[in-house]
Structures are given as C-alpha cells and as structure tokens.
Amino acid sequence: MASETTRRVMRVVAKSVELPSGNEMPTLGLGTWTLRGEEGLRAIRAALAMGYRHIDTADMYGNHDIVGEAIADYPRPELFVTSKVDAPDLHYDDVILTCRKNLRELDTDYIDLYLIHWPNPDLPMKQTFDALRHLVEEGLIRDLGVSNFQQHRMRQALEIADHPIAVNQIELHPFLYQHDLIQLCQDNAVAVTAYAPLTRGKVYESDTLREVAEAHGRTPAQVSLRWLLQKGCIVIPRSRSEGHLRENMDVYGWSLTDEEMALIDAIDEQVRLIEPDFPEFEMP
C-alpha cells in the first residue's frame, strides 16, 4: 500500500457536473430501483433529509408516485430528478406521451434528465432523439441522455443525435470496469453515471477493496464509490438502510492514491449483474 505521506495527497472530486443545459447534476445520487410503497417512500425521504439532492428513477420502476410525494417537500429547483423511457416506448409519439405521463406521476413541471433506458435494436434512433429534443424545446426536460449504450451504440447515438447527449448511465463497478466506454463518453463530453456501483454488496467480498478500505478507515462500499468518482463518474447507489445511506454520502473530503486506484483497476474478476439478450453486451 502507499505510504502515509502519499496517501495524504488529495484528489479533489466535484460534487456536481454541469450538463449541456447549464444545469448542475450532483455526482452522488440515490438509485430507486425496487424502492416502492411505504418502505420506498421512507428511504427516499430519509435520503433527502440527509442531504441527497439527486434522485434517479425510471418509468419501468413503477415508483414515480412515491418519488413525487417525497420531492414535494422541497423546493423543486434544489433537486435533480432523472427518469427514463423504456425500449418499447421509443417511437416519437410514445416518447412524448410517456414523458407527459411521467411528469403527471412525479407531479412536477419538468424532469432534469430524461434517458433512453435501453436501446431498441429494432427501431431507428433518430425519431427517439427527435422526440427528446422536442421535449427539451418544450421545457419538459432539461437534458437528454441514454442508458445501457455500449461503445457501438454510443458511437451511433453521437452521430445521429442533433442535440447534445448529456449522460450515458451504465452498470459500472470494480468488477465491471468499462474503461474504453468511459473514455469514449468523456472524450465526447458525455458524463457517465454508474448504476449498481456496489455490485449489490459484492464489494465486501473483495480482498483488494477491503485492504484499501482498512488503510483509510472506510468501508469497501465507500472505496468503490470513491474510485468511481475519481474516474470522473456520477454514482447512484441504492439503499433502504439509513445507515448505508449516510455511509454512502461520506465519499468526499478524502481520496485514493494512484497506487490504490491502479489496484482496483486491476481486479480481474468480471461480473455483469444486468445481462440483457443483446449480442453487444459483452465483458470489457
């Protein structure tokens, strides 16, 4: 491990990134997949009370109602809300209709970031991006983006879209370090959001992450999040536990050394939690 002197060198990580609209997106958010009902509402409210200001949801999550109820307690400009339109609804008219439905469900006038949740290989992307651009022009969304776009699909999107793509949200963690995809996005001014950044708890099984965490008096979860932040990524860990929510917030004000970053980069076990039936989804 690095010396104590080396470890004190601070890698400053921004708490927000500016998107093409000029809107600021917090680099730490709350993922809400599987958060539903009263338990989900309590978790989202607890996160907001602790200081989370970025909430990530999606049409397919079926929880816009509780997200809307939770965010209603705060001035809307203080919050950043991401939602997504799913692959079956990527025809032009369906994108518009789905977004309007989502706005009603969330009880908000606009969505900060609206993503194509999954690519639809059977549908030309242009009409989808045309619809998203229309939503931006109408003020119903602030920025548009994509999710689960691998390199080939990302390159296509960059060629087709005539409005800046703000974000690509992908599965990303120490067991799925998609370096080339991250580089492609960042080289084209597309921010990368990491979902499943804690690998549903698998980070606690890694000797490397435990060793680095012990050196800093942190947890493997915090180390995984910090590693991603130092890669320039946005993180949206999901949790129902107030203890874990608070733990996940403590990722600023300390840093990993270059040596520690390289150790995590070199973890050779590869795990993809979300494995769609697309031939383009291969291990990096």
Outline of this structure?
With 284 residues, the protein is an alpha/beta fold.
List keywords for this structure.
single chain; alpha/beta; eight-stranded parallel sheet; two-stranded antiparallel ribbon; 11 helices
Mean pLDDT: 94
Beta-strand percentage?
15-25%
- What would the principal axes of the Cα set say about the shape? globular
Proportion in helices: 25-40%
End-to-end C-alpha gap: 27 Å
- What's the gyration radius in Å? 18 Å
| Topology as a string of helices (H) and strands (E) | HEEEHEHEHEHEHEHEHHEHH
**What low-confidence regions span 5 or more consecutive residues with pLDDT below 50?**
1-8
> How many individual helices?
11
Order of strands in the sheet with most strands = 3-4-5-6-7-8-9-10
Number of strands: 10
Structural class, from helix and strand content?
alpha/beta
Largest sheet: number of strands, sense, barrel closure = 8 strands, parallel
Oligomeric category? single chain
